[in-house]
Amino acid sequence: MSGEDDAGLTPDTWNLTPTQVSGEDDAGLTPDPWNLTPTQVSGVRFQVSGEDDAGLTPDPWNLTPTQVSGKDDAGLTPDTWNLTPTLRRMLARGLGLRELPEAIKSYEDALALILTPDTWNLTPAFPYDLAFPEVFYAQVSGVRFQVSGADEPGAELTPDTRPLTPGLTPDTRSLTPELPRHGFDVVVGNPPWDRMLPADKEFFAAYEFTVLDAPTKREREAIERRIMSNPQAAAAHAEYIEEFRGVERVLDRLYTYQVVEIDGEKTIGKQDAFRAFMERNAQVLGPTGLTGVVVPSAFHANEGATGIRRLYFEQMATRCCYSFENRNKLFEIDSRFKFAPVVAARQGPTTEFPCAFYLHDDAWLFEQQRQAPLRYSLDFVRRTGGEYLSLLELRSPADAEVARICFANGVPFGQVCEQLGIRLGRELHMTDDAWRFTPTSQVLPNGVDPRDPEVAAALREQGYLVLHEGKTFHQYTDMWEARPQYLLHTQKIGRATWLQSVVFWRLALRKVASSTNERTFVTALLPAGVLTGDSTFVDQESSNHSTAYSLLLLSICCSFSYDFVARQMVSANVNLFIANRLPVPRALLTPETRHLTPARFLAHSALRLTCNHAGYAALWREQVGEAWREERAPFDWPVLKDDDARWAVRAAIDAVVAEAYGLSREQYAHVLSTFSHKSYPQAPERCLAAFDELKALGLEAFTKQHDPYWDIPLNENLPEPVIELPLPEGSGVRGQGSGAEDQGSGVRGQGSGVQGGRRGRKASVEEPTPLYAEPQLALDLGEESPPAQQVIDFAAAAERVSPRPMRKAAEVRQGYRADEAERYERVKALLAERASLSSGEVQGSLEVDVATARALLRRLVDEGLARVEGEKRGTRYVGVTQAD
After folding, report:
1. Which of 191, 493, 502, 581 is at a distance of 20 to 30 A from 668, taking alpha carbons?
2. Prior bond of 805 cis (ω within 30°)
3. HSE on the CB side for 611, CA within 13 Å?
4. Backbone phi, then psi, for 687, in 5-degree steps?
5. Is the confidence at residue 18, as pLDDT, over 50?
6. Pick from 154, 95, 152: nearest CA to 126
7. CA distance 13 to 8
8. What is the mean pLDDT of residues 8-28?
C-alpha cells in the first residue's frame, strides 16, 4: 500500500475485489489490473508498516467489497469491524482455540490478540476454498489480463491485450473475463497417516487411567460403563463420537473413491486420512495439473485403498511409486514402517509407470547412476492385483518375470478354497476372549508340552483343549519352538461351532509373518482338539470336505515358488485379502486332475511330512489305511526320521509345483536364491536336482518314483470325528468318533485294500448356539468363576484311554519313550562337554530330527540339568551346575 496521503478508494474501483495495490506514485492507490487475481473472499490480511510511528491498522485493500463503504472518503466504519460468527470460528481455529474469548468483539480486538507475543507467528486459518476462490469456485475466480505488444505501433488493442488506464475507466470496467483457471497446477503434501476413527481407550483414559491397563475387554468395558454413568462424561463422549460421524458424513458426500464395490461387496478397511487427502488432491487439480504426496505403503497394498488406486491408475496417470522402508529413520516412526512418494497427473489413464520397493535412502531419488526402477504397465497391475489393483513389491526384472508366469498359470487361492470347501477364518481373540483362557502352567507341571499327544489326550479327559497361536506351529509341524501358553476348558468355550470343528483335522495359516523371514506363508495341518488365537486363520468347515484336499493344498502352500509370490505382497501380516489372491497352479487342483498321480503324490507327501507323532496316527490310517512303506518300523513316529529324509520329500514337492507354474530352470533357481535357507542350507541344491530329475523322467514317472503310496487313491470321502470331548447331553456336537486310538477310521479305496466306510454329509449349523449358560460374574469387572484348577494325573488319564497309540502308564508318567534312553545319555554327555546346547547341535551330533532333539532338550530342563536362555532360534540350553 502506498504511503501517499491522497490514497483512497474511487468510485471506479468500488465494484472490484482488490488484492494487489500498485506501488506507483501516480497510481492513486488503485488495484493493479494487470495482475488482478483475487485470492481471498473474506477476512483481513493485517500488515504492519515499517515506520516507527506506524499504527497497526487493517489493510483495507484486502477487505471484500461488502466491507468497504461506497462513499468517496471510504474508510472502515464501525459496522465493518464487527466479527461475524463464521470468521470468529476461523480465527479461533487458526489460533488453536476452541473459540475466541468473549472479549474479542471486533477486528481491532482480534488484531491485538494475534499480535501478542504468544501468538505473533500465528495467522487465521482460513479454509482453502476461501483462500483460493479462483481454484475452488470457478464462477467467482478472477482474471489475470495479459498485455502483449500493447506499446508497439499499430498493435491492435483487444480485450485481452489493451492496457488498462489508471483508475479503471468505464471502458475497462466492461471487459469480459476469460474462462477461469479450473484447479491448481501442482498439489504437493505429506498428508496425515492416521486413521479417522475414535479412540475410546484414549478418551476414557482422560477420566480414569486404569482403563489402559485392563487385561481383558470385559474389564475395560466395565470401567467404561462406570465412567459413562457420569452425565458430563457421557455428554462429552457423545460429542466426541459425533465429531467422527460428522467427518464420515462429509466423506460420504464429497468423495467417490473411499469405498468401492467388487463382486457386489464393498471394500473393507478402516478409513485412512491419507485416502481422503489423495482424492481431494485429484479434485482440485487443473486439467494439466500434477500431485505429489508421501503416503503409507497401504496405498499400494491394502484393500481399503482399492478405490484410490482405481482413481490414480485408471482415471489419472500415475507417474511413479517408490516404496521406502524406514530403516534409516527418515521419519520418526517405527523402522519397519513403509511409505511411498507417489506422483500422478490429472489426465489419465495410466499406461505404465516406474516403481521400486524396499528402498532405504532418499538419496536414491536423486542419484544419476542408480539402478533403473521397474516399470509396471496397467495390464500387469490388473493381472497380478486383480480388481483390487494392488502392487506386487518386486525387486528386479527377474522377480517380475516369475510373478507374471505364476499369475498367468494360477488360480486365486480364495477361489481354490471355495471349490474345495475350505473356509479359513479367525477363532479366539487374544484380548477380547482372554477371560476364557487358563494359563498352561496352572494345569501342567513345568516343562510339560500340552501338544504332546499323550498329554493332550489326558487334558481332554479333564475338559481342556490346547490354544495354538501362530508361533506354536510351522510348515508341516504343530510342534514349533514356542509352547502353547493357554488352555481352554470346554465349559468356557460356549460356541457350538467351535466345538463342532475342533474334532477334525484342520488346515491353519499363520497370520503374523514378514517378507524378510526365512519363510513367509506358514501353513500346517493341526491335530484335532485344538483351538486357535487371532494370529492364526483356521479352517472353519473341515467336516464338509475331504482331509485329502487340505493336505493337497498344504503341499503347494509350503513350496518355495508359492511362498515367493506371497513375499511380494506381504509386509508384516498375511491377511485373507492377500492370501485369497495368491495364485495356485491351475494344473494341480482342477476336478479333472485331482485324482491323477501328481495330485496323489502331493497329498501323500504332505501326509508323510505332517505325521510327526502318535497324535497323527488316525490321520495316517484315514488316508492310507494300514499301509506302511517307510524305512522305519511300522507306525514309528515321525514317519521321516531326519531333516535329510524330510527334505528329499520336500524337494520333490517343490519341483512338481515349480513345473506346474511353468517356470524354467533359470527362473526356479532365481526363486530359490531369494530365500536364506538357514535352517537347511542344502535345500536349493536338492530342489534343483529334483527339478532336473523331473524334467528327465516326466511328471508321471517322477511322482510315482517319489510316492511309495502312488497306487492308493486319494481318500475324497468326508472325514469322521477324530476325538471325543466330554460334553453335556444335547449339545449337538459330534464328539463320538475314532479318536487317536480308533482303529476303524480308515477309508475304502478302490483296489487299495484300505478298509473303512463312507459317512453321509452332516447338516451344517446355520446359527451358533451356546452350549452353556453364561457364567455368573464374580466381580463387577467381569471376572468369572472358573472351573476348579487341578494338576492332571497323567497315569490315571492314560489308564482310561485305549492303549493302542498310547505308551504304557509308566512311560506316560515319565513323558519319555524307553527307546530314547540311549540318546538321552548321549545328550547329557554332550551337555557336560559343551556346557550349553542348541537344537541344531543336538540334531547334528545325534543325527535326529528337530522334534526328537527338542524332546531330549526339554527332558534336560525337566530333570533340572539345564535351563533355557534366549528365545526362538536363539534358544540355548545351558547346563546347571552346583553353583547354580
Report:
1. 581
2. no
3. 26
4. -65, -45
5. no
6. 95
7. 10
8. 40
Contact by Cβ (8 Å): 758, 719: no
Residues paired with residue 468 on neighbouring β-strands, in sequence order? 532
502: left (phi over 0), alpha (psi -120 to 50) or beta: alpha
Residue 316 has pLDDT above 60, yes or no: yes
User: In whole angstroms, what is the distance from residue 871 CA to residue 850 CA?
Assistant: 16
pTM comes to 0.66
| Helix H or strand E segment including 652 | helix 643-661
Cα 472 versus chain centre, distance: 21
Supply 464's cell numbers: 481342556
Q: Residue 267 pairs with which residues in a beta bridge?
A: none
Report how far apart, in Å, the C-alpha atoms of 685 and of each of 647, 652, 669, 691 are: 11, 12, 9, 10
Among candidate residues 288, 308, 12, 29, the one with its CA nearest the CA of residue 174: 12
Could you report the per-residue pLDDT of 763-783, keeping only the tens digit for each?
A: 333 333 333 333 322 223 233
Beta partners for 878? 836, 867
The 3-state DSSP class for residue 130 equals helix
Q: What angle do CA 534, 541, 786 make, to 5 degrees?
A: 50
Residue type, 52: D
Query: DSSP secondary structure string, 718-766?
Result: PPPP-------TT------S-TTT-S------TTT-------PPPPPPS
Q: CA 522, 528, 533: angle at the middle one, nearest 5?
A: 50
CA neighbor of 829 nearest in space, from 846, 815, 816, 812: 846
For the beta sheet containing 866-869, the strands, ordered from the edge strand earlier in sequence to the opposite edge, are 836-837, 876-879, 866-869
Q: How far apart are CA 169 and CA 157, in angstroms?
A: 16
Give the start-end residues of each E strand in 297-337: 317-325
Q: Cell for 400?
A: 517380475
Q: Cite the DSSP H helix spans in 115-216.
A: 128-131, 133-136, 170-173, 200-205
**Of the spans 571-585, 649-663, 788-802, which averages the highest pLDDT?**
649-663
User: Could you tell me how many residues make up the chain?
Assistant: 884
- For 501, the grid coordinates are 470343528
Find out whether 550 and 539 touch, Cβ atoms under 8 Å.
Answer: yes
Instruction: Reply yes or no on whether the pLDDT at 348 is more than 70.
Output: yes
Residue carrying the nine cell digits 492385483: 385
Query: pLDDT value at position 294?
Result: 96
- Going by DSSP bridges, is the β-strand pair 317-325/352-359 parallel, antiparallel, or unpaired? parallel
Does 836 have pLDDT greater than 60? yes
pLDDT surpasses 90 at 70 = no
If 0-12 CB within 10 Å is exposed, 13-18 middle and 19+ buried, where does residue 395 land?
Answer: middle
27 C-beta neighbours (distance < 10 Å), count: 16
Q: Which helix (H) or strand (E) holds 863?
A: none
**Distance from chain centroid for Cα 258:** 18
Cβ atoms within 10 Å of 85's Cβ, excluding its own: 8
